[in-house]
Each structure stands twice: as C-alpha cells, then as structure tokens.
Amino acid sequence: MDFKSYIAEAISKATNINKDEIKSYIEIPKIEANGDFAFPCFRLAKELKQSPVNIANNIKEKIEIDNNIISRIAVVNGFLNFYVSKISLVKETIQKFDIQKEEYGKSNIGEERTVIVEYSSPNIAKPFHIGHLKTTIIGNALYKLYEFLGFKTIGINHLGDYGTQFAKLIEGYKRWGKEYDFSTDPIDKLADIYKRINALCEEDEKVLEECRETFKKLENGDPYCIELWNKFKDLSIKEFEKIYDLLGVKFDSIKGEAFYSDKMQEVIDILEKSSKLVESQGAKVVNLEDQGINTPCIIQKANGSSIYATRDLAAILYRARTYDFDKCLYVVGEEQSLHFKQVFAVAKYLGLDKKYTDGLEHVSYGMIRLPEGKMSSRKGNFVKVKDLLDEAISKSKEIIQDRDIENKDLVAKQVGIGAVIFEDLAESRTKNQVFDLKEALNFNGETGPYIQYMTVRTKSVLEKAGYLPDSNNLNLSKITDDSTIKLLKLIDNFEDTLLDAMNKNEPSVISRYLIDVSKAFSTFYNENKIICEDKEAEDARLYVTYMTKTVLTNGLHLLGIEVPEKM
Q: How far is CA 351 from the centre of its chain?
C-alpha cells in the first residue's frame, strides 16, 4: 500500500480538495516522534480562510481512516501527524520489496524516453586531474541512475580535442619537442610543454598570435598540424582509459569537439538566415538580450576560427537528430554557467523542436581545491587522478593488511576506489570541496568504506545462517521494535529517494540515504540478536537483513561502487 496516497485520499474526502494536490504536500517528519507522515495545514489556510490549527482539528474530526492502517492522528501546531500501524508498515514494506527482490528500487518510469549524459570530457594532452574526477563520477552515477529507472541512457565523453590550446601545444612542440623523450610518461612531457608555451604567450603577445594562426591552420587541415594533433590525442586516450578502467566507467560514445568541425557551418548558416547572427568588432555574434542575457554569444572569431559555443551548438543539432533525446545533461563545472546559458539560448534559434531545447540542462558542480588553493593545469598545480587512485588503493591495503581476507589486492582496490568515489558524492554537487583522502578512508565515518563494511556485514550474517530468502509465513510481530521499524521505513523509502535524486540530478541524495540505512542497520544489528534460538525471530530478522543488503548493494552500484566479498 502507498500510505501517502491512502492519507491523501482520506484528507481529500474530508476537504473536497484534489487528492494529487494533497499528496504533493504530505511530508515525512524530520523528528520521529511526530509520526510517519505529516500534512502541513497552512497550505490550505488561504483557500479555506481558516487558521492552520483550526483546519487541522476540523480535518481530524471529519477524516475516516482504518485503524489497522493508521493507528493514530495528532494535531501539532497546524500539522496533521499520522502514525502508521507498525504491523501494517512491516507487512506493506515486505510485500513491496517482494515484488522485485534483487532489483528492488528499479522502475520503468523512463520507458520510451532518452537521456544523454555528457560527462568527464578531459582535454587531450593534459593529465587527468581531480578537477575531471568530479564530472566523471557524478556523470557515471547519473548515467546508472537514469538507466536503473528505465530510461534509454546515452553516455557521451565530449573530449576537449580542439581549440587554441592545441595550437599552443603544437607551437610548443615545434620549439622544444626534441628536448623530451616521449617513450615514457608522455602526458607529463606534453603538460610541461603546455606550461612553458603558456608562460611564453603571457610574456610575448606575438607568440600568442602565432598560436591563434596555428589553430586556424589546424581547422583548415594543415597536414603537419593534423599529424601532431592525432599523436597527442592517441597518447591521451590511452592514459584516460587506464583511469576509466580503475573507476569502472564506460561510455556509449567518445566524440571530441573536433568531430563537429565539419558540422559548424550549418549552425552559422541557420543563424545567418534567421538574421540572428550579427557582426561585432569583426566577430560574428548572437545578441541574447531578449532572453535576459546581456553578454552576446560569439559564434565565429574575427579571424574566422570557431569557438566552444559553435561546436556545442553543432553537437546539439547532431544529438537531436541522432538520439531524439528528451534530456541532454551537461555535467560541467559551475564556472561554465554563462557559457551554457548562452548556448542553450542560441539553440532556440536553430529551428529545433521545443522538446530538444527544453531538455538541455547544465548539471553544474563546485570547485575541487587543494589545501593551498585552486588547481591550474597552466601553472602545473594539480593532482593527477591516477596518482590519487593509486594512493587510495595503497592506503586501503595498509588498513586491511592484518585482516583475514583473501585476495587483498582486489579488496584494497574496491575499498580505495569506493572511498574516492563516495568522497566526491557525499555532499551536494554544487558545494566547493577540499579533497581529503584520509577522511575518505575512515572506516568508522560517513564514508564509502563504512557503507561497504555494513553491506559486507549483512552478507556475512546471511552466509553464516545459510540463509535463502523466504518471506513466507514470517511472524511480523517479531520485527516491530523501534530499531527495526526505523530501518524498514528507510528501506520503504528507497524508490522515492532514487526519484528525488533523479529529479535533482543529485547523486548525494543517494549517498546520504545509504549512510542513514547503514547507521540504522548498525543499530538494528546491535539491538537484535539475529541468529538466535527463537526461530520465528531469526527468520524475520534475517529477511530484514536480506532487504538491507539488497538496498545497500543496489545503492552502491548506482554510485559506481563495488561491494567486496570480505572486509
């Protein structure tokens, strides 16, 4: 039974107000003593022209409910608080879980809808640093979440493989390439060249102008420039794949900006035909003041070369035609907010169906900082993800070294990688973050290893009991104590949690939920002897343990975190 719907229908009958409207107002109280569900009557004060307290008391007098389902209703400061019968809650939660069991939480709400998730998108010829880690981890979690909820999901890695920065690298390579041995650590060598050429560009405007001209040559297909560009790209992708393998991240399409180089002219032609493209200081721009954006969007530079926006617009056209998407999510740092506002605004002038332009969304995230400040690849001040992941695995191995665990290398990898992933997803994606590996590996904190450990504990209990899941003939009265009820309430809320995470494009909603479930299971475990002489109590508690294992395993999977066999 959907308790929220049951309560909404009862209130609707008592007030003659639409059931769906009532349901949208019903909350889960933050304080457990205030019941299982609460209806804030101040929502109806204007419509009914009464005080919230009077409305609450009037509804309480009129409402008709089954006491076997709702055991009590209380009025507190204009809220109607509903207390669900414990037996009813246990029964309904288990019946709901039984429909799906191992696939609990999965749904088909996204059926026949397509979502594109663009994530990771590192620049070629530059080390993959922790600034790229956040988009990769958030994007992978969103990809898995939408797929789990029934959407046709397309993961795209939009490589940064075009633009003036690559012309800079070509110019740097011309000057100093012979000084380097590219047979080992080629990306580090290219990064050093990039750092040197940037410094030279800042000192000498003529060098910067040479780089701009070199980019124009690259756009025009200069053989030497193309040869170097391909070399840089091949070296980079090989390095990126090592990191994606460690993180367990995959893509359906890896298409860089360069893929759209022959598709940009159509964007320019469409905008010119619609009279939206105007000249400004030699460049071609689109003015967006009519959409509330005071900064015009540059489509073509004064020297005739393209810009990020041109390629992103070409990509939107291509994706609409190729994938017929309902949503296209861009998991990119918040510093690109203006860029995406401009691009999404210009996209409305491309003649696309409104479905596509309405489906464009920038899923922004905050900065990741080192203790000493903001990272910069230009200044060489960054942490490479490969080094971070290797360190996390190494430290995990030290922590578990004295434990009786087979295949410690695999477990160390699962725990170390899981710790890094969870650290990135533990807080709101828009929050700025200082990455703390020591805290991330704390087995007793609100961390990935803690949730992994609790999941392993559920598996261990079930294995020790030789348990095969069976919900038939359970004595539900054996699992109505407070700690079990709290755990079951959380389990019952799994699907709503996933929908909330999807609606907000916020994986941290799942992260916080898994912490709550882990803590609730710890209390349940400590307050109830699961394997015991009372066979009815044991069977009921083992099934709750099985439900918990399923929720934690599925939740961790959605975040991209593996569950070790032992810890």
A: 31
Quote the pLDDT of residue 437: 85
Q: What is the mean pLDDT of the chain?
A: 93
Q: pTM here?
A: 0.91
The domain locations on the chain are 3-84, 116-252+314-370, 385-559
What is the spatial distance between Cα 339 and Cα 318, in angstroms, rounded to a whole number? Answer: 19
Q: How far is CA 337 from CA 248, 271, 331, 366, in A?
A: 28, 22, 11, 11
CA distance 494 to 105: 6
**What is the SS3 assignment for 254?**
strand
First to last CA, the chain: 37
Mean pLDDT computed over 173-180? 94
State the pLDDT confidence band at 377, using cuts at 50, 70 and 90: very low
Other Cβ atoms within 10 Å of 207 Cβ, number: 18
Q: Assess whether the region 3-84 and the region 116-252+314-370 belong to the same CATH fold.
A: no
Q: pLDDT at position 215, please? A: 87
* DSSP-derived 3-state class of residue 88: helix
| Distance, CA of 481 to CA of 498 (rounded, Å) | 27
CB distance 542 to 552 below 8 Å = no
Residue 561, helix vs strand vs coil: coil
User: What is the spatial distance between Cα 318 and Cα 307, in angstroms, rounded to a whole number?
Assistant: 17
**Chain Cα centroid distance, residue 195:** 32
User: Is the per-residue pLDDT at 203 higher than 80?
Assistant: yes
DSSP, collapsed to helix, strand or coil, labels residue 448 as helix
CATH superfamily of 385-559: Isoleucyl-tRNA Synthetase; Domain 1 (1.10.730.10)
Give the model confidence (pLDDT) of 59-80 as tens digits: 999 999 999 999 999 999 899 9
Confidence of residue 250 (pLDDT cuts 50, 70, 90): very high
Instruction: Cite the beta strand spans of 119-272 per DSSP E.
Output: 152-157, 253-254
Which CATH entry fits the domain spanning 3-84: 3.30.420.250, 3.30.70.260, 3.30.1360.70, 1.20.120.80? 3.30.1360.70
Segment 403-418 mean pLDDT: 94
pLDDT above 90 covers a percentage of the chain that reads: 80
**Separation between Cα atoms, residue 67 and residue 70, nearest integer Å:** 5
* Residues making up the chain, counted from first to last: 567
- Indicate whether 374 pLDDT > 70: no
CA–CA dist 481, 524 (Å, integer): 9
Judge whether 118 and 158 are in contact, CB under 8 Å: yes
What class has domain 116-252+314-370? alpha beta
Give the rounded distance of the alpha carbon of 8 from its chain centre: 32
